[in-house]
Design goal:
The structure is a homodimer of 356-residue chains. The first copy, chain A, has 356 residues and is an alpha/beta fold. Chain A is 41% helix and 20% strand. The first copy, chain A, has 2 domains: 1-107 and 258-356, Isopropylmalate Dehydrogenase; 119-255, 3-Layer(aba) Sandwich (Isopropylmalate Dehydrogenase), CATH 3.40.718. Chain A has helices at 14-32, 44-51, 57-64, 88-99, 122-125, 163-178, 194-207, 220-229, 241-250, 252-255, 292-304, 309-324, 345-355; strands spanning 2-10, 35-40, 68-73, 103-109, 129-135, 154-162, 183-188, 214-219, 236-239, 264-266, 271-273, 327-328, 341-342. The longest helix of chain A has 19 residues, at 14-32. The interface between A and B is large, with 60 and 60 residues. Strand 6 (154-162) of chain A pairs antiparallel with strand 6 of chain B. The structure holds 3-isopropylmalic acid (2 copies).
Chain lengths: 356, 356
């Protein structure tokens, strides 16, 4: 099996966690006799500093020639004063759009070993296994008109969806639910927003093609509550772009840390893989970053781009094993118990490698 | 002291919880020799059924002549197929706009007696006391253009804010923080949305007039997580309309139930008071509804419209006493302990009355 992966490490803790993820991919390739090649590229704040653009053409060209893109994280407080289209995050939004993946898959799983890291009670998080399917190319993120300049007294963004955009992401959600617990929870604000009415009507239409999957609708405000109160009730959660951004971060609370959450964006020319966490500039270079989000993202590459389901599972099992053995980066050390060992980013990466 | 209160009980559990709230207000009036008069009006689904409009002119006229409006809840699944402007919720949005209150205050407090009702660990919720200040008249809720018809393949909503709209609600937040723990956390999505950039720049400007109050900015996605992980870190949380809708419902998790949360909307011609919970049509008439949200909302009327701070505190103390004595409606009975007594909506109201 051959796979060409663009590695865009980005800002803050991006490079350090990405390094651990590529180490794991190298190990998998070696063990399985696969040929994985890695092409590095600049993105985000680092790219602005070196080239003036948050997504240099060279990066995009390279990415489009690869089978998968592994992105670390983008964002740097240094650029906070700039308008959205000049910031590191613009590079992320541009590459998402250019690669064309519209379905962002964000699993949120409760690891038994980490139940003490969550602010939620263990009986609440027990056995939770949610898969967010977040629409990634529509809504307020990309809607026009969008407008503000510093001297103006008014600003505008546009939330816009077409039926086709909803249909295609809904299909992904129903397909995935078919291989899971047969339930899709679609999130909207249909009691207020016209866009949500289109969303709800369209998802309801699509559901007819999947008679074995149960569809329920939840308002985004209620959902923000339910997902903490009864997370076990949810299987696949389908959302528009911004609601998915908010709810999937919130669901990090279930796992105990955002640092544990992987994501894969599928449906476009090239799949895009990124841990859910941000660039966390405050802890960059301190060895405190949790590489497991990035490593689990690597597992998603194996699953969705390399069709190596067994290897994906092996990486996930290795992560579980290391957690069960009590190794903890700072973010997952809440309520630390005797028998737990604090480790750095790099040590954590090595431990997973060994467990593999 | 005289006070004329418009009571718009609305749909679902609205009437039953509102009744308990007005009982308490009557008791306070009697004990203090005040003259509170109540004027009833139709709103929401009930109003649609009886008059064809979710906010009949008679209701609005009556409300505008009162000193305060107490609203129960609106929303009824029967109208789910209607477009936003024909639904019960339209009545709520219209009266919010007509009364002109732009600052929706939503306290989120952890009651020691209820710590077992929260899915969060007791050590996480301990001593939490957050006050949301949610902008209530702008953003996606009211922005134009807004558009969808059932035959169209596209839908649009507009997120729009003016500097003045941000300034006036920010001032409320800073004023309130000045009487509390001197901290304002402003929530936005400034790394993506132009509207959030206006929001952030304006709030930062306003902060200069309140040098003793600390201002911090949080992105809405991170905030959805932080508020569960470290709720004690927050004092006043300032948000635009939709972000406040989502985050304040989420914060219901801290108290243990949405049924406990009151709200007051100030700054307009007439203050509007409503519990945060919805109409919960599934439990309407079963005696399961928690009237404490409505009763605590009544306490906010005493505080913000009647200037009866002592009486407001007395009502809040009575609620605490009843909770400490172990009385629980269904929603706050999670992890029920020996020594707790399940009670109905009406019994709960009576108990608070007696404790007063
Ligand atoms: C960095 C930011 C633009 C991004 C988003 O909002 O999509 C991030 O929060 C995420 O969830 O991937
Ligand atoms: C019923 C609905 C229109 C309302 C809102 O979204 O504002 C409710 O959720 C609230 O928070 O008061």
């Amino acid at each position: 099996m051959r796979l060409k992966i663009a590695v865009l490490a980005g800002d803050g803790i991006g490079p350090e966690v990405t390094k651990q993820a590529t180490n794991i991919l190298r190990a998998v390739a070696e063990m399985g006799g696969h040929e994985f090649t890695f092409v590095e590229g600049l993105i985000g704040g680092t790219a602005i500093t070196e080239t003036g653009s948050p997504l240099p053409t060279a990066t995009l060209d390279a990415a489009l020639e690869c089978d998968a893109v592994l992105l670390g994280a983008v964002g740097d407080n240094k650029f906070n004063a700039l308008p959205p289209d000049k910031r590191p995050e613009a590079g992320l939004l541009q590459i998402r759009q250019a690669l064309g993946g519209f379905a962002n898959l964000r699993p949120s799983i409760a690891y038994t070993a980490l139940s003490a890291s969550s602010p939620l009670r263990p009986e609440v998080t027990k056995d939770v296994d949610i898969l967010f399917v977040r629409e990634l190319l529509g809504g307020l993120y990309f809607g026009a008109p969008r407008w503000w300049d510093r001297n103006s007294n008014e600003a505008i963004n546009t939330m816009r969806y077409t039926r086709d955009e909803v249909v295609r992401v809904a299909r992904v959600a129903f397909e995935l639910a078919g291989n899971r617990r047969q339930k899709v929870t679609s999130v909207d604000k249909a009691n207020v927003l016209e866009v949500s009415q289109l969303w709800r009507a369209t998802v309801t239409e699509v559901a007819k093609d999947y008679p074995s999957v149960t569809l329920e609708h939840q308002l985004v405000d209620s959902m923000a509550m339910h997902i903490m109160n009864i997370p076990r009730n949810f299987d696949v959660v389908l959302t528009e772009n911004l609601f998915g951004d908010i709810l999937s971060d919130e669901a990090g609370v279930i796992t105990g840390s955002l640092g544990m959450l992987p994501s894969a964006t599928i449906g476009g020319a090239v799949n895009l893989y990124e841990p859910v966490h941000g660039s966390a500039p405050d802890i960059a270079g301190t060895g405190k970053a949790n590489p497991l989000g990035a490593i689990l993202t690597a597992a998603m590459i194996l699953r969705h781009s390399a069709n190596l389901e067994q290897d994906a599972k092996a990486v996930e099992a290795a992560v579980n094993k290391v957690l069960d053995a009590g190794y903890r980066t700072a973010d997952i050390a809440r309520g630390q118990q005797p028998g737990q060992t604090p480790v750095s980013t790099q040590e954590m990466g090595k431990l997973v490698h060994q467990a593999l």
